Amino acid sequence: MGLVIQGRVLVPGEAEGVVMASDEPLSFWGGYDQVTGEIIDRRHPLSGRNAANAILAIPASRGSSTTTAVLLEAIRRRTAPAALITQDPDSFLTLASVVADELFRCPVPVVALGAAEFRLLRSGQHARVCDDGRIEIRDGIDHN
Amino acid sequence: MVLTADDRAALGGEHGPAIRMAMKILTRMLPAFGTDRLLDITAAHIDSSLFQGDATLIYAETLARKGARVVVPATLNVSGVDEHGWQQWSVPPEWASKAHRQMVAYQSMGCKPTWTCAPYQEAERPGLGQQIAWGESSAVVFANSVLGARTERYPDLMDICAAITGRAPAAGLHLSENRAGQMLFRLRNIPTALQKSDSFYCVLGHLIGARTGRWIPVIDGLHHIPSEDQLKALGAAMASSGSVALFHAVGVTPEAPSLEAALMGRQPVQTVSLALEDLRRARAELSTHDGKALDMIVLGSPHFSLNEFQALAALVEGRRCAPKVRFLITASRFVRTVAERQGHLEKIQAFGGTVTVDTCLLTTPMLPDTVRILMTNSAKYAYYSPGLLKTSVVFGSLRDCVGSAIAGKVDIDDSLWAL
Protein backbone atom coordinates (compact mmCIF):
# COMPACT_ATOMS: atom_id res chain seq x y z
CA MET A 1 0.00 0.00 0.00
CA GLY A 2 1.17 3.46 -0.73
CA LEU A 3 0.65 6.81 0.84
CA VAL A 4 -1.76 9.41 -0.50
CA ILE A 5 -1.21 13.11 0.08
CA GLN A 6 -3.72 15.80 -0.85
CA GLY A 7 -2.08 18.88 -2.34
CA ARG A 8 -3.39 22.19 -3.58
CA VAL A 9 -3.65 22.39 -7.37
CA LEU A 10 -2.05 25.41 -9.00
CA VAL A 11 -2.01 23.92 -12.49
CA PRO A 12 -3.99 20.71 -12.94
CA GLY A 13 -2.62 17.67 -14.73
CA GLU A 14 -1.58 14.07 -14.42
CA ALA A 15 1.96 12.76 -14.20
CA GLU A 16 3.84 9.76 -12.97
CA GLY A 17 7.49 9.18 -12.28
CA VAL A 18 10.37 8.97 -9.88
CA VAL A 19 10.54 11.62 -7.17
CA MET A 20 13.58 13.89 -7.01
CA ALA A 21 13.33 15.85 -3.77
CA SER A 22 15.36 18.47 -1.96
CA ASP A 23 14.65 20.82 0.91
CA GLU A 24 16.72 23.51 -0.83
CA PRO A 25 14.99 26.07 -3.11
CA LEU A 26 16.24 26.21 -6.73
CA SER A 27 16.64 28.98 -9.28
CA PHE A 28 16.01 27.48 -12.71
CA TRP A 29 18.01 30.31 -14.28
CA GLY A 30 21.56 29.25 -13.60
CA GLY A 31 20.23 26.12 -11.93
CA TYR A 32 18.52 24.09 -14.64
CA ASP A 33 19.86 23.28 -18.09
CA GLN A 34 16.87 23.63 -20.40
CA VAL A 35 18.62 21.62 -23.14
CA THR A 36 19.34 18.54 -21.02
CA GLY A 37 17.25 18.82 -17.85
CA GLU A 38 20.36 18.67 -15.65
CA ILE A 39 20.41 20.64 -12.40
CA ILE A 40 23.47 22.85 -12.78
CA ASP A 41 23.45 25.07 -9.66
CA ARG A 42 26.77 23.84 -8.28
CA ARG A 43 25.80 25.00 -4.79
CA HIS A 44 22.54 22.96 -4.82
CA PRO A 45 22.28 19.45 -3.31
CA LEU A 46 20.73 18.11 -6.55
CA SER A 47 23.60 19.46 -8.69
CA GLY A 48 24.45 17.02 -11.47
CA ARG A 49 21.14 15.13 -11.31
CA ASN A 50 18.85 15.08 -14.34
CA ALA A 51 15.29 16.14 -13.50
CA ALA A 52 13.77 15.74 -16.98
CA ASN A 53 10.52 13.78 -16.60
CA ALA A 54 11.04 13.37 -12.84
CA ILE A 55 8.54 14.46 -10.19
CA LEU A 56 10.59 17.39 -8.90
CA ALA A 57 9.88 18.37 -5.29
CA ILE A 58 11.51 21.58 -4.04
CA PRO A 59 10.20 23.94 -1.34
CA ALA A 60 10.13 26.86 -3.82
CA SER A 61 12.02 28.51 -6.61
CA ARG A 62 14.47 31.20 -5.67
CA GLY A 63 16.55 34.01 -7.08
CA SER A 64 16.13 35.14 -10.64
CA SER A 65 12.87 36.23 -12.30
CA THR A 66 14.06 34.26 -15.32
CA THR A 67 13.30 30.91 -13.69
CA THR A 68 9.95 31.07 -15.49
CA ALA A 69 11.47 31.58 -18.93
CA VAL A 70 13.95 28.72 -18.44
CA LEU A 71 11.22 26.35 -17.27
CA LEU A 72 8.95 27.35 -20.16
CA GLU A 73 11.73 26.60 -22.65
CA ALA A 74 12.37 23.26 -20.92
CA ILE A 75 8.66 22.39 -21.19
CA ARG A 76 8.75 23.24 -24.92
CA ARG A 77 11.84 21.05 -25.39
CA ARG A 78 10.36 18.24 -23.26
CA THR A 79 13.27 18.40 -20.82
CA ALA A 80 11.15 19.73 -17.94
CA PRO A 81 10.16 17.70 -14.89
CA ALA A 82 6.95 15.71 -15.38
CA ALA A 83 5.39 17.53 -12.40
CA LEU A 84 6.46 20.21 -9.93
CA ILE A 85 5.66 19.87 -6.26
CA THR A 86 6.42 22.73 -3.89
CA GLN A 87 5.89 23.46 -0.23
CA ASP A 88 4.19 26.86 -0.68
CA PRO A 89 2.44 28.09 -3.84
CA ASP A 90 5.22 29.26 -6.16
CA SER A 91 4.29 31.89 -8.73
CA PHE A 92 7.42 31.43 -10.89
CA LEU A 93 6.90 27.72 -11.52
CA THR A 94 3.13 28.11 -11.82
CA LEU A 95 3.47 30.84 -14.45
CA ALA A 96 5.73 28.73 -16.68
CA SER A 97 3.11 26.02 -16.73
CA VAL A 98 0.21 28.44 -17.28
CA VAL A 99 2.01 30.02 -20.25
CA ALA A 100 2.97 26.57 -21.60
CA ASP A 101 -0.75 25.80 -21.54
CA GLU A 102 -1.72 29.07 -23.25
CA LEU A 103 0.98 28.85 -25.94
CA PHE A 104 1.56 25.15 -26.52
CA ARG A 105 -1.35 23.40 -24.75
CA CYS A 106 1.17 21.37 -22.74
CA PRO A 107 1.05 22.39 -19.08
CA VAL A 108 3.00 20.56 -16.40
CA PRO A 109 1.07 19.80 -13.19
CA VAL A 110 2.01 22.13 -10.31
CA VAL A 111 0.91 21.23 -6.78
CA ALA A 112 1.64 22.89 -3.41
CA LEU A 113 1.66 20.72 -0.31
CA GLY A 114 2.35 22.61 2.90
CA ALA A 115 5.35 21.94 5.10
CA ALA A 116 4.31 18.71 6.85
CA GLU A 117 3.24 16.86 3.69
CA PHE A 118 6.17 18.20 1.70
CA ARG A 119 8.55 16.49 4.11
CA LEU A 120 7.02 13.09 3.25
CA LEU A 121 8.51 13.19 -0.24
CA ARG A 122 11.89 11.53 -0.70
CA SER A 123 14.10 11.04 -3.71
CA GLY A 124 13.63 7.61 -5.26
CA GLN A 125 9.96 7.21 -4.41
CA HIS A 126 7.55 6.47 -7.25
CA ALA A 127 4.71 8.99 -7.38
CA ARG A 128 1.56 9.63 -9.35
CA VAL A 129 0.18 13.16 -9.45
CA CYS A 130 -3.57 13.30 -10.08
CA ASP A 131 -5.69 16.03 -11.67
CA ASP A 132 -7.30 16.93 -8.33
CA GLY A 133 -3.97 17.43 -6.52
CA ARG A 134 -3.75 14.01 -4.92
CA ILE A 135 -0.28 12.52 -4.93
CA GLU A 136 -0.05 8.75 -4.64
CA ILE A 137 3.29 7.55 -3.42
CA ARG A 138 3.37 3.94 -4.32
CA ASP A 139 6.63 2.41 -3.30
CA GLY A 140 10.13 3.04 -2.09
CA ILE A 141 8.97 4.61 1.16
CA ASP A 142 9.49 3.69 4.75
CA HIS A 143 6.26 4.56 6.53
CA ASN A 144 7.66 4.32 10.02
CA MET B 1 -12.48 35.80 -8.26
CA VAL B 2 -13.58 39.35 -7.55
CA LEU B 3 -12.99 41.06 -10.88
CA THR B 4 -14.07 44.56 -11.88
CA ALA B 5 -16.37 45.06 -14.86
CA ASP B 6 -13.34 46.20 -16.84
CA ASP B 7 -11.32 43.10 -15.87
CA ARG B 8 -14.22 40.95 -17.00
CA ALA B 9 -14.49 42.85 -20.28
CA ALA B 10 -10.75 42.34 -20.82
CA LEU B 11 -11.10 38.64 -20.08
CA GLY B 12 -14.04 38.39 -22.46
CA GLY B 13 -11.99 39.83 -25.31
CA GLU B 14 -13.76 43.19 -25.53
CA HIS B 15 -10.43 45.04 -25.45
CA GLY B 16 -8.82 42.85 -28.09
CA PRO B 17 -6.95 39.54 -28.20
CA ALA B 18 -3.69 40.68 -26.58
CA ILE B 19 -5.39 42.12 -23.49
CA ARG B 20 -7.51 39.00 -23.32
CA MET B 21 -4.45 36.73 -23.31
CA ALA B 22 -2.67 38.89 -20.73
CA MET B 23 -5.74 39.06 -18.47
CA LYS B 24 -6.27 35.31 -18.78
CA ILE B 25 -2.71 34.64 -17.63
CA LEU B 26 -3.02 37.17 -14.79
CA THR B 27 -6.27 35.70 -13.50
CA ARG B 28 -4.98 32.12 -13.75
CA MET B 29 -2.07 33.25 -11.55
CA LEU B 30 -4.24 34.64 -8.74
CA PRO B 31 -4.31 31.39 -6.70
CA ALA B 32 -0.50 31.25 -6.67
CA PHE B 33 -0.48 34.78 -5.24
CA GLY B 34 -3.14 33.86 -2.68
CA THR B 35 -5.63 36.51 -3.76
CA ASP B 36 -8.87 36.79 -5.71
CA ARG B 37 -8.48 40.32 -7.09
CA LEU B 38 -6.27 42.71 -9.03
CA LEU B 39 -5.12 46.28 -8.41
CA ASP B 40 -3.97 49.15 -10.66
CA ILE B 41 -0.28 49.65 -11.34
CA THR B 42 1.31 52.81 -12.73
CA ALA B 43 4.62 51.55 -14.17
CA ALA B 44 6.35 48.33 -15.16
CA HIS B 45 9.84 46.95 -15.74
CA ILE B 46 9.84 44.11 -18.22
CA ASP B 47 12.20 41.21 -17.58
CA SER B 48 10.44 39.17 -20.27
CA SER B 49 12.94 40.80 -22.67
CA LEU B 50 15.52 38.11 -21.88
CA PHE B 51 15.82 35.64 -24.74
CA GLN B 52 15.93 32.14 -23.30
CA GLY B 53 15.22 30.12 -26.42
CA ASP B 54 12.35 29.77 -28.87
CA ALA B 55 9.65 29.72 -26.16
CA THR B 56 10.27 33.28 -25.00
CA LEU B 57 10.43 34.48 -28.61
CA ILE B 58 7.17 32.72 -29.51
CA TYR B 59 5.55 34.32 -26.45
CA ALA B 60 6.74 37.83 -27.37
CA GLU B 61 5.80 37.54 -31.02
CA THR B 62 2.40 36.04 -30.15
CA LEU B 63 1.59 39.04 -27.96
CA ALA B 64 2.94 41.47 -30.58
CA ARG B 65 0.94 39.81 -33.36
CA LYS B 66 -2.20 40.13 -31.27
CA GLY B 67 -1.54 43.88 -31.15
CA ALA B 68 -0.31 44.21 -27.55
CA ARG B 69 0.47 47.76 -26.31
CA VAL B 70 1.58 48.70 -22.82
CA VAL B 71 -0.81 51.03 -20.99
CA VAL B 72 1.71 52.21 -18.36
CA PRO B 73 5.31 53.45 -18.79
CA ALA B 74 7.40 50.29 -19.18
CA THR B 75 11.18 50.01 -19.20
CA LEU B 76 12.93 46.98 -20.70
CA ASN B 77 15.38 44.76 -18.86
CA VAL B 78 18.48 43.33 -20.51
CA SER B 79 17.97 41.48 -23.78
CA GLY B 80 19.70 38.39 -25.09
CA VAL B 81 22.19 40.28 -27.26
CA ASP B 82 24.22 43.50 -27.51
CA GLU B 83 22.37 44.84 -30.55
CA HIS B 84 25.36 46.59 -32.13
CA GLY B 85 28.36 44.87 -30.53
CA TRP B 86 27.67 41.13 -30.55
CA GLN B 87 29.91 40.32 -33.52
CA GLN B 88 33.01 41.09 -31.45
CA TRP B 89 32.28 38.11 -29.22
CA SER B 90 31.36 34.44 -29.58
CA VAL B 91 27.61 34.94 -30.01
CA PRO B 92 26.17 32.50 -32.59
CA PRO B 93 24.44 34.47 -35.40
CA GLU B 94 21.23 32.44 -35.05
CA TRP B 95 21.01 33.36 -31.37
CA ALA B 96 21.69 37.04 -32.16
CA SER B 97 18.99 37.05 -34.81
CA LYS B 98 16.32 35.49 -32.58
CA ALA B 99 17.25 37.58 -29.54
CA HIS B 100 17.00 40.65 -31.74
CA ARG B 101 13.54 39.64 -32.98
CA GLN B 102 12.47 39.44 -29.34
CA MET B 103 13.82 42.96 -28.74
CA VAL B 104 11.82 44.23 -31.73
CA ALA B 105 8.65 42.52 -30.46
CA TYR B 106 8.77 44.21 -27.04
CA GLN B 107 9.61 47.59 -28.56
CA SER B 108 6.60 47.23 -30.87
CA MET B 109 4.42 47.02 -27.73
CA GLY B 110 5.58 50.50 -26.71
CA CYS B 111 8.18 49.53 -24.09
CA LYS B 112 11.17 51.86 -23.70
CA PRO B 113 14.40 50.39 -25.11
CA THR B 114 16.39 50.90 -21.92
CA TRP B 115 17.84 47.34 -22.00
CA THR B 116 19.07 47.43 -18.45
CA CYS B 117 18.68 45.48 -15.22
CA ALA B 118 19.15 48.77 -13.32
CA PRO B 119 16.41 51.03 -14.74
CA TYR B 120 16.56 53.12 -11.56
CA GLN B 121 19.93 54.44 -12.79
CA GLU B 122 18.36 56.31 -15.67
CA ALA B 123 14.62 56.30 -16.21
CA GLU B 124 12.14 58.14 -14.07
CA ARG B 125 12.08 56.32 -10.75
CA PRO B 126 8.99 55.16 -8.95
CA GLY B 127 8.42 56.90 -5.64
CA LEU B 128 7.52 55.91 -2.09
CA GLY B 129 4.29 53.91 -2.00
CA GLN B 130 3.85 53.79 -5.79
CA GLN B 131 2.25 50.58 -7.10
CA ILE B 132 4.37 49.07 -9.87
CA ALA B 133 4.97 45.69 -11.51
CA TRP B 134 8.66 44.99 -11.93
CA GLY B 135 10.53 41.92 -13.06
CA GLU B 136 14.30 41.31 -12.58
CA SER B 137 15.07 40.16 -9.06
CA SER B 138 17.80 42.74 -8.39
CA ALA B 139 15.61 45.61 -9.63
CA VAL B 140 12.62 44.41 -7.62
CA VAL B 141 14.56 44.41 -4.35
CA PHE B 142 15.96 47.87 -5.13
CA ALA B 143 12.52 49.31 -5.98
CA ASN B 144 10.89 47.96 -2.83
CA SER B 145 13.72 48.51 -0.38
CA VAL B 146 15.61 51.60 -1.52
CA LEU B 147 12.82 53.51 -3.30
CA GLY B 148 9.91 52.32 -1.16
CA ALA B 149 7.82 51.53 -4.25
CA ARG B 150 5.58 48.48 -4.14
CA THR B 151 5.99 45.44 -6.32
CA GLU B 152 5.88 41.69 -5.98
CA ARG B 153 8.76 39.66 -7.44
CA TYR B 154 7.23 39.24 -10.85
CA PRO B 155 8.49 36.40 -12.96
CA ASP B 156 9.43 36.93 -16.60
CA LEU B 157 6.36 36.72 -18.85
CA MET B 158 4.04 38.11 -16.16
CA ASP B 159 5.45 41.65 -15.95
CA ILE B 160 4.37 42.26 -19.55
CA CYS B 161 0.82 41.03 -18.78
CA ALA B 162 0.66 43.64 -16.02
CA ALA B 163 1.96 46.35 -18.38
CA ILE B 164 -0.57 45.45 -21.10
CA THR B 165 -3.54 45.46 -18.72
CA GLY B 166 -2.33 47.97 -16.09
CA ARG B 167 -3.28 45.40 -13.44
CA ALA B 168 -1.46 43.13 -11.01
CA PRO B 169 -2.50 40.72 -8.22
CA ALA B 170 -3.60 42.59 -5.06
CA ALA B 171 -1.22 40.61 -2.92
CA GLY B 172 2.15 40.36 -1.27
CA LEU B 173 4.33 43.45 -1.16
CA HIS B 174 1.69 45.62 -2.83
CA LEU B 175 -0.11 45.64 0.53
CA SER B 176 1.18 47.57 3.57
CA GLU B 177 0.53 44.76 6.04
CA ASN B 178 2.89 42.42 4.18
CA ARG B 179 5.87 44.79 4.25
CA ALA B 180 6.91 44.39 7.89
CA GLY B 181 10.41 43.13 8.56
CA GLN B 182 10.37 39.55 9.86
CA MET B 183 13.88 38.27 10.44
CA LEU B 184 16.23 40.55 12.35
CA PHE B 185 19.94 40.46 11.51
CA ARG B 186 22.06 42.31 14.07
CA LEU B 187 25.62 43.19 13.09
CA ARG B 188 27.97 42.52 16.00
CA ASN B 189 31.35 44.24 16.16
CA ILE B 190 31.76 44.64 12.42
CA PRO B 191 34.57 47.19 11.96
CA THR B 192 33.47 50.49 10.42
CA ALA B 193 36.30 50.36 7.87
CA LEU B 194 34.85 47.09 6.59
CA GLN B 195 31.30 48.51 6.59
CA LYS B 196 32.49 51.28 4.30
CA SER B 197 33.85 48.87 1.69
CA ASP B 198 31.79 47.81 -1.34
CA SER B 199 32.60 44.11 -0.90
CA PHE B 200 31.01 44.11 2.55
CA TYR B 201 27.56 44.71 1.00
CA CYS B 202 27.97 41.86 -1.50
CA VAL B 203 29.02 39.47 1.26
CA LEU B 204 26.34 40.62 3.70
CA GLY B 205 23.68 40.24 1.00
CA HIS B 206 24.92 36.78 0.05
CA LEU B 207 24.79 35.69 3.69
CA ILE B 208 21.37 37.17 4.48
CA GLY B 209 19.79 35.89 1.26
CA ALA B 210 20.80 32.34 2.10
CA ARG B 211 19.75 32.59 5.77
CA THR B 212 16.45 34.45 5.56
CA GLY B 213 14.50 32.11 3.29
CA ARG B 214 11.22 33.83 2.42
CA TRP B 215 11.26 36.13 5.46
CA ILE B 216 11.73 39.88 4.96
CA PRO B 217 15.12 40.69 6.51
CA VAL B 218 15.89 43.70 8.69
CA ILE B 219 19.50 44.81 9.10
CA ASP B 220 20.34 46.60 12.32
CA GLY B 221 23.73 47.88 13.42
CA LEU B 222 25.10 49.59 10.32
CA HIS B 223 27.22 52.54 11.37
CA HIS B 224 27.86 53.72 7.86
CA ILE B 225 25.20 55.06 5.47
CA PRO B 226 25.69 52.91 2.37
CA SER B 227 25.86 54.51 -1.07
CA GLU B 228 23.25 53.71 -3.68
CA ASP B 229 25.71 51.39 -5.43
CA GLN B 230 26.33 49.57 -2.16
CA LEU B 231 22.57 49.13 -1.65
CA LYS B 232 22.27 47.91 -5.24
CA ALA B 233 24.96 45.28 -4.54
CA LEU B 234 23.39 44.29 -1.21
CA GLY B 235 19.96 43.67 -2.75
CA ALA B 236 21.27 41.88 -5.83
CA ALA B 237 23.28 39.51 -3.64
CA MET B 238 20.25 38.73 -1.43
CA ALA B 239 18.11 38.13 -4.51
CA SER B 240 20.67 35.65 -5.88
CA SER B 241 21.37 33.46 -2.86
CA GLY B 242 17.77 33.90 -1.70
CA SER B 243 14.40 35.19 -2.87
CA VAL B 244 14.50 38.53 -1.09
CA ALA B 245 12.22 41.14 -2.67
CA LEU B 246 12.33 43.64 0.19
CA PHE B 247 14.78 44.35 2.99
CA HIS B 248 14.87 47.06 5.58
CA ALA B 249 18.10 48.63 6.85
CA VAL B 250 17.45 50.56 10.04
CA GLY B 251 18.29 54.23 9.62
CA VAL B 252 18.95 53.77 5.91
CA THR B 253 15.94 52.62 3.88
CA PRO B 254 12.74 54.70 3.69
CA GLU B 255 10.41 52.34 5.55
CA ALA B 256 12.90 51.79 8.38
CA PRO B 257 13.55 55.07 10.19
CA SER B 258 13.70 52.94 13.36
CA LEU B 259 13.81 49.25 14.22
CA GLU B 260 10.24 49.43 15.45
CA ALA B 261 9.08 51.00 12.19
CA ALA B 262 10.91 48.33 10.17
CA LEU B 263 9.14 45.60 12.16
CA MET B 264 5.85 47.58 12.09
CA GLY B 265 5.68 47.15 15.85
CA ARG B 266 5.72 43.34 15.67
CA GLN B 267 8.20 40.89 17.13
CA PRO B 268 10.73 39.44 14.69
CA VAL B 269 10.17 35.73 13.94
CA GLN B 270 13.86 35.23 14.59
CA THR B 271 16.88 37.30 15.55
CA VAL B 272 20.29 36.39 14.18
CA SER B 273 23.61 37.92 15.22
CA LEU B 274 26.15 38.30 12.47
CA ALA B 275 29.81 38.48 13.43
CA LEU B 276 32.90 38.94 11.31
CA GLU B 277 33.46 35.18 11.31
CA ASP B 278 30.05 34.62 9.61
CA LEU B 279 30.90 37.20 6.99
CA ARG B 280 34.30 35.65 6.35
CA ARG B 281 32.65 32.29 5.66
CA ALA B 282 30.11 33.88 3.33
CA ARG B 283 32.89 35.70 1.50
CA ALA B 284 34.73 32.41 0.95
CA GLU B 285 31.56 30.90 -0.54
CA LEU B 286 31.48 33.51 -3.28
CA SER B 287 34.73 32.15 -4.78
CA THR B 288 35.04 28.69 -6.32
CA HIS B 289 38.74 28.99 -7.17
CA ASP B 290 41.72 29.65 -4.93
CA GLY B 291 44.59 29.56 -7.43
CA LYS B 292 46.33 32.51 -9.04
CA ALA B 293 45.36 31.85 -12.67
CA LEU B 294 42.98 34.36 -14.23
CA ASP B 295 41.37 34.73 -17.68
CA MET B 296 38.91 37.58 -17.37
CA ILE B 297 37.59 40.32 -15.13
CA VAL B 298 33.86 41.08 -15.39
CA LEU B 299 32.12 43.99 -13.68
CA GLY B 300 28.58 45.29 -13.80
CA SER B 301 25.89 42.96 -12.46
CA PRO B 302 23.61 44.78 -11.87
CA HIS B 303 24.68 47.15 -14.64
CA PHE B 304 27.58 49.49 -13.83
CA SER B 305 26.53 52.96 -12.66
CA LEU B 306 28.06 56.28 -13.60
CA ASN B 307 29.72 56.51 -10.17
CA GLU B 308 31.22 53.08 -10.68
CA PHE B 309 32.58 54.13 -14.09
CA GLN B 310 34.12 57.17 -12.43
CA ALA B 311 35.72 55.09 -9.65
CA LEU B 312 37.06 52.56 -12.15
CA ALA B 313 38.45 55.27 -14.44
CA ALA B 314 40.37 56.76 -11.51
CA LEU B 315 41.83 53.35 -10.60
CA VAL B 316 42.95 52.42 -14.12
CA GLU B 317 44.16 55.79 -15.41
CA GLY B 318 47.64 55.45 -16.84
CA ARG B 319 47.79 51.69 -16.15
CA ARG B 320 47.58 48.70 -18.50
CA CYS B 321 45.64 45.49 -18.15
CA ALA B 322 47.85 42.40 -18.69
CA PRO B 323 47.47 41.31 -22.34
CA LYS B 324 46.26 37.79 -21.50
CA VAL B 325 43.46 39.04 -19.24
CA ARG B 326 40.16 40.25 -20.70
CA PHE B 327 38.47 43.11 -18.89
CA LEU B 328 34.72 43.54 -19.44
CA ILE B 329 32.16 45.94 -18.02
CA THR B 330 28.44 45.42 -18.61
CA ALA B 331 26.26 48.51 -18.56
CA SER B 332 23.29 50.18 -20.20
CA ARG B 333 23.54 52.23 -23.38
CA PHE B 334 22.54 55.31 -21.48
CA VAL B 335 25.13 55.04 -18.72
CA ARG B 336 27.87 54.10 -21.20
CA THR B 337 27.06 57.19 -23.26
CA VAL B 338 27.24 59.47 -20.24
CA ALA B 339 30.47 57.78 -19.07
CA GLU B 340 31.90 58.43 -22.51
CA ARG B 341 30.91 62.11 -22.46
CA GLN B 342 32.47 62.54 -19.04
CA GLY B 343 35.76 61.04 -20.22
CA HIS B 344 35.69 57.87 -18.08
CA LEU B 345 35.35 55.47 -20.99
CA GLU B 346 38.48 56.69 -22.75
CA LYS B 347 40.61 55.92 -19.68
CA ILE B 348 39.06 52.49 -19.29
CA GLN B 349 39.59 51.66 -22.98
CA ALA B 350 43.21 52.86 -22.82
CA PHE B 351 43.64 50.44 -19.90
CA GLY B 352 42.33 47.60 -22.09
CA GLY B 353 38.75 47.44 -20.84
CA THR B 354 35.70 46.93 -23.05
CA VAL B 355 32.03 47.64 -22.45
CA THR B 356 29.10 45.49 -23.53
CA VAL B 357 25.63 47.05 -23.44
CA ASP B 358 22.00 45.86 -23.66
CA THR B 359 22.74 42.53 -22.02
CA CYS B 360 25.20 40.90 -19.62
CA LEU B 361 27.67 38.04 -19.53
CA LEU B 362 25.01 35.75 -18.05
CA THR B 363 22.27 36.46 -20.58
CA THR B 364 24.04 36.26 -23.94
CA PRO B 365 26.40 33.46 -25.08
CA MET B 366 29.32 35.82 -25.65
CA LEU B 367 32.01 34.15 -23.55
CA PRO B 368 34.77 32.38 -25.53
CA ASP B 369 35.38 28.75 -24.52
CA THR B 370 38.96 29.61 -23.62
CA VAL B 371 37.81 31.68 -20.62
CA ARG B 372 37.76 29.33 -17.64
CA ILE B 373 38.43 31.59 -14.65
CA LEU B 374 36.56 34.82 -14.01
CA MET B 375 37.11 37.42 -11.35
CA THR B 376 34.40 39.88 -10.33
CA ASN B 377 33.38 42.38 -7.67
CA SER B 378 29.71 41.39 -8.12
CA ALA B 379 28.04 38.84 -5.85
CA LYS B 380 25.48 38.19 -8.58
CA TYR B 381 28.12 37.37 -11.19
CA ALA B 382 29.94 35.27 -8.59
CA TYR B 383 26.77 33.39 -7.67
CA TYR B 384 25.60 32.52 -11.17
CA SER B 385 28.77 32.13 -13.26
CA PRO B 386 29.70 28.57 -12.21
CA GLY B 387 26.25 27.24 -13.23
CA LEU B 388 25.46 29.38 -16.25
CA LEU B 389 28.92 29.81 -17.74
CA LYS B 390 30.63 26.71 -16.34
CA THR B 391 33.58 28.83 -15.22
CA SER B 392 35.40 29.11 -11.93
CA VAL B 393 35.00 32.42 -10.20
CA VAL B 394 36.95 34.58 -7.78
CA PHE B 395 35.24 37.31 -5.80
CA GLY B 396 37.19 40.46 -4.91
CA SER B 397 36.82 44.21 -4.52
CA LEU B 398 36.97 46.61 -7.46
CA ARG B 399 40.54 47.45 -6.42
CA ASP B 400 41.40 43.71 -6.25
CA CYS B 401 39.97 43.24 -9.74
CA VAL B 402 42.00 46.10 -11.20
CA GLY B 403 45.19 45.02 -9.40
CA SER B 404 44.76 41.44 -10.56
CA ALA B 405 44.12 42.55 -14.14
CA ILE B 406 47.39 44.51 -14.12
CA ALA B 407 49.35 41.68 -12.47
CA GLY B 408 47.81 39.06 -14.77
CA LYS B 409 47.05 36.87 -11.76
CA VAL B 410 44.66 36.86 -8.82
CA ASP B 411 45.86 39.29 -6.18
CA ILE B 412 43.48 39.93 -3.26
CA ASP B 413 43.93 42.24 -0.31
CA ASP B 414 42.39 40.49 2.73
CA SER B 415 43.35 43.10 5.32
CA LEU B 416 39.82 44.47 5.89
CA TRP B 417 38.56 40.95 6.61
CA ALA B 418 41.26 39.96 9.10
CA LEU B 419 40.05 38.86 12.54
Structure notes:
The complex is a heterodimer of chains A (about 140) and B (about 425). Chain A is an alpha/beta fold. Helices cover about 20% and strands about 25% of the residues of chain A. In chain A, helix 1 crosses helix 2 (about 90-105). Chain A is globular. The two termini of chain A are about 15 Å apart. Chain B has about 425 residues and is of the alpha/beta class. Helix content of chain B is about 40%, strand content about 10%. In chain B, strand 13, helix 15 and strand 14 form a beta-alpha-beta unit. The radius of gyration of chain B is 21 Å and the shape is globular. The interface of A and B includes residues 42, 75 and 91 of A.
Blueprint of the fold:
The complex is a heterodimer of chains A (144) and B (419).
Chain A: E1 3-6, E2 8-11, E3 15-21, E4 55-57, H1 67-77, E5 83-86, H2 91-104, E6 110-112, H3 115-118, E7 126-129, E8 134-139
Helix pairs in contact in A: 1-2
Chain B: H1 5-11, H2 17-33, E1 38-40, E2 44-46, H3 54-65, E3 74-76, H4 93-108, E4 133-134, H5 137-147, H6 159-165, E5 167-169, E6 183-187, H7 192-195, H8 198-212, E7 217-220, H9 228-241, E8 248-249, H10 259-262, E9 270-274, H11 276-285, E10 296-299, H12 306-316, E11 326-331, H13 333-341, H14 344-351, E12 354-357, E13 373-376, H15 379-388, E14 392-395, H16 398-407
Parallel strand pairs in B: 2-3, 2-4, 6-7, 6-9, 7-8, 10-11, 10-13, 11-12, 13-14
Antiparallel strand pairs in B: 1-5
